[in-house]
Amino acid sequence: FTASTQRYAGILVQDTLHTLTAPARWDQRDWLDFSLYTVGIGAVMVFDGSISDEVKENRTESADDFARFIQEFGSLPSFGIMGGFYGAGMIFGNNKAKSVAKDAFASSIVSAGIITPTLKLAVGRSRPYQDKGAYHFEPFGGDKSFPSGHTTQAFSLASVIAEYYDERWVDITSYGIAALVGLARIEQEAHFPSDVAAGAVIGTVVGKTIVRYNKDLHKGVTLTPYGNGEKIGAAIRIQF
Prior knowledge:
The chain is mainly alpha-helical. It has helices spanning 3-20, 28-46, 48-57, 61-70, 76-92, 95-123, 149-164, 168-187, 193-213, and strands spanning 221-227, 232-238.
């Protein structure tokens, strides 16, 4: 590893530690927000079974086609969007666009690469298409339905974009697409509604946290996301 790569890895470690240890720095308002999120997800979970059954009974070919298309914005294409922001920033000399790409990548690593997979493993919730019921859990041994990884990724990117741009239409577009990703995962019987709600919360909170923390950390960092259909990654270069 080069020194510059090691330094960027250090930034990612800082982002991760800052995010994971955030509860130790929360004030009363933060804990209230956390409680509201938890109660909200729990309230949605009450209706997981009935909503899932309704979805199964009303699936259509056109809805399936759209869901299969839009859900991809919670996977590899999201890195293409990051690359697009960075490319636009390079071409037009727009530092804000480059910062979006850098922070979105870091947020993806922390939220969709660490937090959500860890919870998936620990919770071990079955998926709707397995027909085991909405409340079948096998911690550390079952499936990985809770939370939704696609939704986490989509909201992680959306929240970073929304943090950098004040225009209302940007918020509506970015969060709207992220919400469609979550709905698509429900339509595809890959997740229950509460899985999607949890993924949305994780992605949004982590994205906002990292943007605010990384204001001064990504100066001089060049990040180029890439993917070949099977793998995703990023080329990193840091200028001193």
